[in-house]
Amino acid sequence: MEWIKESLERLEDKLWAEAGRMGDKIPYIAEDGRYEKDMRDVNLSWWTNGFWYGMMWQMYQATGREGFRRAAEKGEKALDLALENFEGLHHDVGFMWMHTAVANYRLTGNAVSRRRGLHAAGLLAGRFNYAGKFIRAWNLDKTGWMIVDCMMNLSLLYWAGQETGDPRYCQIANMHGDTAMRELMRPDGSCNHIVVFDPETGAVAEKPEGQGYGPGSSWSRGQAWALYGFALAFLHTGRQEYLDTAKRAAHYFIANVAMTDYVSLVDFRAPKEPVMWDTTAAACAACGLLQISDMVPAEERELYRFHGERILRKLTEAYCCWDAERDGILQYGTAAYHRQEDRHVPIIYGDYFLTEGLLRLSDKAFMIW
């Protein structure tokens, strides 16, 4: 389609210009059209620090331009210190090293990158709580916390299991996935963000609101994590219950986003006012919908592809800044419902999922997960 072709041309021009400006910076949120802060200085262990380099690897795969590859390799080396000082890392190491080291290894065969990826996978596996059968979230006093975000990090464990032939990685990923199906997902296809367990017994203690509006509400990016995360779990395991869960999450997301012209609210169950958007949730969900469409029987494919494409078209036409002189592409990203400082801003993971989604529509995407 012409809009996809035009969007990809704009995307390449914009990311090429940003790569030229970026130098060694690790970007997060563009402020007034510039990536002023360098996450190497702010927090090298921050969970989003791999997404820029994931975009660079995606664009290198799609275009063959060496400048994208050189930009991607810079970040991988910068994150070595985060591995060395591992106390700051948590459940999101998949986001950080799937998009850097594992992507590099898959595309180039770099042995050093392979070791980095396996190191990160070992750290993730080491967070497993046997009593509750979950990978603990975050650090400090949150020893019994599990969050839906971690479904997107399980790919690191599936990759490590396949790469080493050691079944423990996949066993941990599957046990976490099974617990997430039981405790995070609801019968209607919506999901909780957080479940808090007693870390000694594994008993469920509470299910707080997390980054959504309140307990029992429906944080849209958490819904996208579930949608895409369970789809990826099926991709790696072939377990039908994971695909069925991904489809239920997808149907719930589609039903809600269709009521707001294919752009997601921050929380689908929040009060009608004030209206707050999170385009990053829509972009992530679109990628998940396209993934599901590749895995279901032929007669089901159009449902998921249609809605994934519809979301991406809406985002590219109404919510993107294509000015190559300004940093940040996807506008109106929101990290958490009750936080003002990162509300309605361009956030790096929104740009990543937009990039992946557009490349998927043109059959140029690299399966980074």
Key descriptive features of the protein:
369 residues; mainly alpha; three-stranded antiparallel sheet; 5 strands; globular
Structure description:
The two termini are 26 Å apart. β4 (194-197) and β5 (204-206) form a beta hairpin. It contains 14 helices and 5 strands. Helices cover 54% and strands 4% of the residues. The strands form 2 sheets. Strands 3-4-5 form a 3-stranded antiparallel beta sheet, with no helix packed on it. A two-stranded antiparallel sheet has the order 1-2. It has helices at residues 2-22, 39-42, 51-63, 66-78, 80-84, 93-108, 111-125, 154-164, 168-183, 220-237, 240-257, 279-293, 298-318, 348-361; strands at residues 128-129, 134-135, 145-147, 194-197, 204-206. With 369 residues, the protein is mostly helical. The mean pLDDT is 97. The chain is globular and about 55 Å long.
